[in-house]
């Protein structure tokens, strides 16, 4: 049996959701179950175990509870929860496509869970998705990404608290094919609000 790559471990819809919850907080499996009620308990525990074995998440504490021990999980090193450039370079064209499909499937799952909650108000909830084409030189793109990263940095360390909802914001940057004579870049941004 071949060992699953870090890419495959991380890019599973359920495991991606677990990672998102653990990025800024420490949670037990029971607390994760409360945050992810649509995932069967046995399945959730299997995914937590796989993430721990891959060292994406870590046990940071063990709390005695009625004769058992509750493990507390967190992410020590956020860089372990992302796919690095060296791993990306090793992927074939088909693997890149598979990776992108998993990414889109995860977004679709987030949006479907939002839509399935009953009464929704897209405008009030801040739901949007858009795509825009930008014409940027390599230097302008680097500056744009740097500026965008700075904007993200202002809020990515926010801890969960009353009045805050977890919101999913995904960015996709796709350059047009090199053989296109006009030249330019495409930039798509999807944003959806999920509880």
Automatic annotation (TrEMBL):
Q: Quote the CDD domains the UniProt record gives.
A: HTH_ARSR
Region span, Disordered: 175-195
Q: Gene3D superfamilies from the xrefs?
A: 6.10.140.2180, Winged helix-like DNA-binding domain superfamily/Winged helix DNA-binding domain
> What Pfam family is a match, any one?
HTH_20
> Which InterPro entries has this protein been placed in?
ArsR-like_HTH (IPR011991), WH-like_DNA-bd_sf (IPR036388), WH_DNA-bd_sf (IPR036390)
GO MF term set: DNA binding
Keywords from the UniProt entry: DNA-binding
Protein name from the UniProt record: HTH arsR-type domain-containing protein
Origin species, per record, is: Neobacillus vireti LMG 21834
């Amino acid at each position: 049996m071949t060992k699953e790559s870090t890419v495959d471990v991380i890019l599973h819809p359920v495991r991606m959701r677990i990672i998102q919850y653990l990025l800024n907080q420490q949670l037990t499996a029971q607390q994760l179950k409360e945050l992810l009620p649509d995932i069967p308990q046995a399945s959730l525990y299997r995914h937590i175990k796989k993430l721990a074995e891959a060292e994406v998440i870590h046990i940071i504490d063990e709390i005695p509870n009625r004769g058992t021990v509750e493990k507390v999980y967190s992410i020590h090193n956020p860089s372990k929860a992302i796919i690095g450039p060296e791993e990306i370079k090793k992927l074939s064209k088909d693997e890149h496509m598979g990776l992108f499909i998993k990414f889109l499937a995860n977004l679709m799952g987030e949006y479907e869970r939002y839509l399935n909650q009953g009464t929704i108000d897209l405008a009030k909830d801040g739901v949007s998705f858009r795509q825009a084409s930008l014409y940027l030189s390599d230097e302008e793109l680097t500056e744009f990404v740097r500026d965008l990263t700075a904007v993200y940095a202002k809020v990515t360390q926010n801890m969960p608290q009353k009045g805050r909802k977890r919101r999913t914001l995904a960015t996709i940057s796709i350059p047009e094919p090199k053989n296109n004579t006009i030249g330019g870049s495409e930039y798509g941004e999807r944003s959806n609000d999920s509880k």
